[in-house]
Amino acid sequence: MKKRIALVTGGFTGESVISLKSAAVVEKHLDQERYEVFKILIYPGNWYHETKSGEKIKVDLNDFSIVLDNQKITFDGVFNILHGSPGEDGKLAGYFDMLKIPYTTCDAMTSAITMNKGYTKAIVHDIPELFVARSFHLFKNTEERRKEILHDLRLPLFVKPNNGGSSIGMTKVKDPSELEEALARAFAEDAQVLVEEFVSGREFSIGIYCAKGITTVLPATEIVSSKEFFDFEAKYSPGIAEEITPGRMSEEEVSRVKRICEKIYLKLNCKGAVRVDYFLENETGKFYFIEINTVPGQTETSLISQQVRAIGMDVKDFYTNLIEEMFD
Fold this sequence. Notes:
Layout: E1 3-10, H1 16-29, E2 35-43, E3 46-50, E4 56-58, E5 66-68, E6 71-73, E7 77-80, H2 91-99, H3 108-115, H4 117-124, E8 130-131, E9 135-138, H5 143-152, E10 157-161, E11 171-173, H6 179-187, E12 193-197, E13 201-211, E14 214-217, E15 221-225, H7 232-236, E16 241-244, H8 251-267, E17 273-281, E18 287-293, H9 303-310, H10 315-325
Parallel strand pairs: 1-2, 1-7, 8-18
Antiparallel strand pairs: 2-3, 3-4, 5-6, 9-12, 10-11, 10-12, 13-14, 13-15, 13-17, 15-16, 17-18
Helix pairs in contact: 2-3
InterPro entries: ATP-grasp (IPR011761), ATP_grasp_subdomain_1 (IPR013815), D-Ala_lig_Van_CS (IPR000291), D_ala_D_ala (IPR005905), Dala_Dala_lig_C (IPR011095), Dala_Dala_lig_N (IPR011127), PreATP-grasp_dom_sf (IPR016185)
Main location: cytoplasm
Keywords: ATP-binding, Cell shape, Cell wall biogenesis/degradation, Cytoplasm, Ligase, Magnesium, Manganese, Metal-binding, Nucleotide-binding, Peptidoglycan synthesis
């Protein structure tokens, strides 16, 4: 008998557009012989399953079920591809935990912590061979804090929403006069903001996942952007950034990155597939942690998809591994 899988997508943030694209790809590649898949769209106050005819079937939030053809449908598990809130920040995970429904992504605690860039850095900073850029974690945009930032940190700076994704609301500040506006832009997206010193280096993104009890670090993708940094446009517009998989690293760098990323995954108690973004500093080759994404994009050209194919694995088998892991 096929397992019933709810594929959750949508969301409460600007990342919902990317989530829908990811869900379309996941749905296309899931093993239809093993799973009966129901796409569930989640928006504020509006959770529903859309039938092939376009009818929207409301989700009963008491037990996360739907009624189709007078039959109540419950789910064996959830494939979570909802970027941002509530799919990536722990809210959905907590809800599913209460209902005892397994899901493919990190638990509520890990999801909530890793959504907060500042808190995540505080946890991983003492991992051997891992470095973090000097930074300020802000809760208010005040003149006093701006003076402290400019006194203690070297320009240029990256200003970003602390709990955001897809580089929305992110600014590179090269002149002190630009800081106030950059902070205002970031605070418009989030109540917390992270200000970091710029690290001059090669940028990479790498997937890590666990299946059958084995943690696998995928080949890293090197990001060569024609823009100043890998922003929303560079991430989702063709031709803006070159993505090289596997990235250009020496054997020593590949080995070191693998060691570090395995430790990040284990220390944060990750589950399913995550993606770690990092720099290798130009002068020293040091590994600088940027952030971790616990619900990484799964479009046809997404970094995770590229990396899975780079090890000779079919994306369908990769998704099967993620689903089966949540039942073990």
